[in-house]
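In response to the reviewer comment on reproducibility (Comment 2.3), we provide here a single inverse folding case reported in full, input and output, so that an independent group could reproduce the run without further information from us. The structure tokens appear first.
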């Protein structure tokens, strides 16, 4: 009897009581469905996305960086994916097009952050496009610390034997189905800690047919595919008591005239959306328009990934869950002053304002040299830096607050890369 009691206690302390929530295992999957404008996802019936949103939320979001600023980024696929993966815009991650010429791997992907801190945790990618793993994540490269994912199911665009290419791009539809079947099977069985599922078909149909019945059908199909992954997630939650975060998003909208193109900075191309089951979405999610760069910090937050301060000071997004202190930092040079302002989401504590004129991080991946220029209540929402000469050269401004850190660059030359 006593043995049984000890055994029970041992099990209790090892695994925790299911009710206390403290020891619940957390897992995350994010799905990028390519090229679906916000107005289309809102108009076309998407019952599975609606179900996910009912548990968490839906919001319009944006891509493309700060329009007409140093962080403006093309509304092109690989550019958007890398903003999602690294939490930064093109001026930092240095992906400007689908050829992915020279990514700046000093800006780590969420996969690298997880694998560096928790090497035992398991990561997976499901995608037709091979470059997502080999170029954006940079698997196996010295520059990414030889990042290795635990599982990949990708590269089917290159398999012309199994998926012969046809003009109507039906082979991409078949590949997406193939990818989704495996993603749902693998998630249900192996439950990787972090997974990226990439679906391409809606973008291909968009390019070919533009705004059309065909596009609407592609979106409905994508919704069903998301539903299969969502079902796998729900089964894991029910069967194993795991706590799963699912985030579904897109990488750009499409032009207003035809719905065929993207890449520019029109409203419809910049407008995107995020659907998630996240339980504790914050006021920033609900009251502002989040960006694709907010997904990485959200995943980090949920998976309890600690990001070192020199890297936190570079990330352009903020978490969509839990408390954040401030967002939407702006820095306006005005002769010998820098006018700094932000929106306070939790009006408590002190904001520390830092300034740096070095570019160590982007060039060699090392911390920049910052000096503290002011301390002010977060609730003030503004601060003025007085300088002894007019602002003519590059600098970085960082504002650190109790719950999060934000940054902006001042680039008088207008060039994205100083
Ligand atoms: Zn795309």
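Designed residues, in position order:
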């Amino acid at each position: 009897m006593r043995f049984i009691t000890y055994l029970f206690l041992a099990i209790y302390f090892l695994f925790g009581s299911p009710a206390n929530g403290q020891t619940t295992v957390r897992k995350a999957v994010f799905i990028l469905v390519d090229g679906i404008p916000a107005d289309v996802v809102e108009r076309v019936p998407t019952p599975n996305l609606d179900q996910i949103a009912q548990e968490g939320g839906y919001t319009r979001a944006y891509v493309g960086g700060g329009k007409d600023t140093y962080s403006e980024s093309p509304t092109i696929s690989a550019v958007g994916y890398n903003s999602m993966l690294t939490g930064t815009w093109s001026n930092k991650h240095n992906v400007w097009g689908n050829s992915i010429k020279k990514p700046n791997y000093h800006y780590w992907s969420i996969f690298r952050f997880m694998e560096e801190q928790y090497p035992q945790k398991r990561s997976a990618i499901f995608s037709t496009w091979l470059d997502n793993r080999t170029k954006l994540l940079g698997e196996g490269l010295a520059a990414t610390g030889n990042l290795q994912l635990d599982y990949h199911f990708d590269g089917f665009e290159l398999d012309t034997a199994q998926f012969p290419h046809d003009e109507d791009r039906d082979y991409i539809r078949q590949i997406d189905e193939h990818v989704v079947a495996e993603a749902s099977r693998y998630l249900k069985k192996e439950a990787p800690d972090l997974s990226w599922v990439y679906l391409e078909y809606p973008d291909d149909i968009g390019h070919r047919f533009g705004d059309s019945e065909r596009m609407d059908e592609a979106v409905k199909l994508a919704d069903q595919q998301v539903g299969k992954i969502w079902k796998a997630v729900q089964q894991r939650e029910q069967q194993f008591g795991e706590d799963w975060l699912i985030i579904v998003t897109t990488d750009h909208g499409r032009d207003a005239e035809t719905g065929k193109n993207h890449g520019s900075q029109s409203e419809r191309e910049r407008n995107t959306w995020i659907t998630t089951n996240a339980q504790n979405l914050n006021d920033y999610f609900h009251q502002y328009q989040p960006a694709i760069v907010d997904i990485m910090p959200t995943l980090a937050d949920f998976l309890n990934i600690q990001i070192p301060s020199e890297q936190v000071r570079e990330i352009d997004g903020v978490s969509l869950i839990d408390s954040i202190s401030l967002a939407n930092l702006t820095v306006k040079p005005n002769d010998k002053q820098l006018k700094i302002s932000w929106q306070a989401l939790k009006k408590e504590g002190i904001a520390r304002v830092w300034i740096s004129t070095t570019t160590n991080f982007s060039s060699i991946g090392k911390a920049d040299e910052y000096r503290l220029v002011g301390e002010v209540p977060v609730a003030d929402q503004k601060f003025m830096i007085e300088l002894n000469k007019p602002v003519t050269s590059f600098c970085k401004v960082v504002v650190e607050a109790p719950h999060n850190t934000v940054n902006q660059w001042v680039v008088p030359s207008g060039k994205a890369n100083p």
